[in-house]
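The protein record filed here:
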Amino acid sequence: MNKQEFLTELKKRLSGIPKKDIDQTIEFYEELILDKMEEGQTEEEAIASLDSIDEIVKATLSNVSIPKLVKEKFAPKRSLKTWEIVVIASTAIIWIPLAIVLLSVILSLYVGLWSGVIALAASTISVGASSLIIVGGILDLCMGHAASGIFTIGLALAFLGTALLLGLLTFKLSKLMVVLCKKIILWIKSLFIKRGEKDEN
């Protein structure tokens, strides 16, 4: 694949993204290829040393906000005619509530996903706080109540161990949720790119 083929394919795959972002990406990779060629690489070697087009598209897409993609997709490419404005305004009673419902569903799913992590974190804190009964066990031992003191200390250590395990689980689950949310956002953004490709064809 030569430079022109690479840049043409990249531009095609980025369709649906705002033109400014496409131009910046194309310009960046064109300069990068030229720099590598100045260092002595052939055109094909320079292109082979770059990330794949899929990875470049993902990286570019992750830096473009969803509102920008929506604006690019749905912004009129020409001035609206009077009758079109009247139709949009008169149907607003239908599409505005539908948009609110859709946003509410997305928000509730997002909150629902994170509520499990928050509940687990709260459990970790409460179980960890319960381990403070170790103070009572130490006082029992000091007062000569060996059996109750040892039992209380053992119970406190069990709480502490459970809190540590729950803390580790909360940390892992939080990381997983961040990755999952990033993937979901990237998937939503990729829908605009795929639509852009279809519109072009």
Remarks:
- The chain has nine helices and no strands.
